[in-house]
Amino acid sequence: MTTKIKNNKKTKVSKIIMMICLSIVAVIQIFPLIWLLDFSLASSNELFTTGLLIIPKKIQWGNYVKAFVDGNFLLYLKNSLLINGLSLVLVICISIITAFATTRMIWKLKTAVKTFLLLGMMIPIHATLLPNYIIYDRVGLTDTIWALLIPYVAFSLPQGLFLTSGFMEAIPKELEEAALIDGCGVYRIILIIIAPLMKSSVATVAIMTYLNNWNEFMMASTYLRSKTWKTLPFSVLEFTGQYSSDYAVQFAVMALTALPAIIIYIILNKHITKGVAMGAVKG
Amino acid sequence: MKKKLLSALIMVMLSISLVACGGNQMNSDSDSTQSQTDNENASEEIITIHVFTGLADRKTGTGLIEEILFEQYMKENPNIKIEVEALDGETYKTKFKAYATSSEMPDLLGVWGQPAFINEIIDAGLLAELNPEDYKDYGFVKGALDGFSKDGKLYGLPRSTDIMGFYYNKAIFEENGWEVPKTYNELIELAGKIREAGLIPVSMDGADKWPLAIYLNDLIAKIDGDNGDKISQSIANGDFSDPTYKKAAELLRKSVEAGLFQNGFETTDYATAFNLFANGQAAMYYMGNWEMSIATNPDVLPEIRENIGVFAMPEVEGGKGKVTDIAAWNGVGYSISANSPVKEEAIKLLNYMMKPENLSKLTWQNGVGMSAQDYSGYLTGDETVPQKIFTNILMEATSITGTPINDLGTSAFKTVCEDLCQELAIGAITPEEFIQKLEEATK
Q1: Interchain proximity A241–B300, CB inside 8 Å
Q2: pTM of this prediction?
Q3: H helix runs in B78-183, sequence order
Q4: CA-based nearest distance B115→chain A, Å
Q5: What CATH number does the domain located at B162-329+390-441 have?
């Protein structure tokens, strides 16, 4: 009896401690977002007063108006969504197919091919910047959507393959054997049996690809010249002066840029932890 | 249920891939029509000039002035179409390198008329030669074209004259009975007094490092007076044994030891340093004349912006230089690409922009800086105090330093030199080590 009460107490205390720890972590995680919102509503001059958060004298909705009008926000948002959406779909499709080919199918060079593809993770973006530009220039791809789509897919693919193939090894082979006996072909096995089981790892790959590419600026600024395909990070640039910048409006742009990322994260959140954990063990 | 979900998924995938293909087709279509129209335009003589500029903000400052001039030019010349691509700072330089390797170098380029930047691209044959005869009546100040010339040939035109000085808050100075220092020692003494009053003496942008390098260069000018191209020679020979350099390094260190700059200045970036002064937390601010618009900046409190004065780096005791030997140079400007298909038209546009009544006048009237041309014809007497004082400083100058020390070598030297200036300032290295490492950097 007494031990039970003790145990109850213990669990209660540990629960409270856990809650405190978790709320501290939550505050640390959420604070930058609050900070971003707060600064985006102040005037540029107020940003440099002391204190963590500012209470703006007048809430500057004008920052957001400026971000929308002067920052070409809608055009850049459309481009960002299109380019990211396409690269997302491509990365997911290709990584599932490749994962299947390198983990399930039996052929001579399968490990070599897989290792070769995974090597891509080690290549830093900066090293490929100029060589890629020269190739694009020769082929005439600069300033087209392909100039961004190709490297975005290429740089996200190794990570996607790593996660999906790790996850795929955890799926029992018997399922496929059963499917084969029932008369499924390879394509139907991937589409009907494997793909639905891969939901959480697909969500993980989706979030990672999306977050990597959403804020990418280095390649975009090098490969694009006209407004046609410029992505959201260019919007921040429109308010960068030669020496100092219009920080308040930049905060507004960043708040708007972060919004889709947050929404997507909330939607896919349930699956991401599962995907990483399961993919990691067998990877 | 699962089937439905799956078919929905496939539908989405299919439609997206369709859109992708469609988008691509449209894209290539518009591409081909564009090249078609380009060809047609060539016969109709509509010419597109591609401008690449380092001024990303097109709504204020010099970026806005560029936009105004481009608009005007297109109105006056309906057959010209100007396409602007703007990036800032480091991204600009990265893209510039990319362009240098490609076949599509823009026609009109923003450049820095400093060896660290321009020498490499002149040597690569990327810049078109300009005819100095064209600019005889443009009123460029003496020496302004030097940074943009190499081996007697002209490759670009400067946009601005940059002068470094101390902005100070006159109201704070008057309240406390402080006076503008006449000598460097007085400046150091003043730092102590200002600290006692609980204020920051000089707000310094130490995180970007180049203001420290210019500060050092300013001191060299005060020690040596007009020293010609001594610094360039030192860099070329890798010899900084001249006592001037060590003295200047010691003086920079001394000012930090005396607390002249705010605590943690080495991590204070441009905007923060500016705002320390603009909020009245600092009594002085060491920065260039491009910030003279602070006097009309609506974001700055009126009691501060209406009380701004300026003075140049004071004389150093025992130095040969006078207060009129100033740190000034013509840094930024424009060049034309040597391989541009519309070179003639691009040069015409450049010449139009640089006409004294265009860029020079607008820059002055908008108070965003000083052009590299004689703008005295546009003085109205209604200028702000910083505008007037900077004009005076320039007119009374007995010598100007030209390109600061950090930009006189290669681009690699620039990085090392600026790092060393910061390390010297925070006391991580001694003045002796500073000289020694500077010599190593030239090798």
Answers
A1: no
A2: 0.78
A3: 89-101, 115-123, 170-176
A4: 20
A5: 3.40.190.10
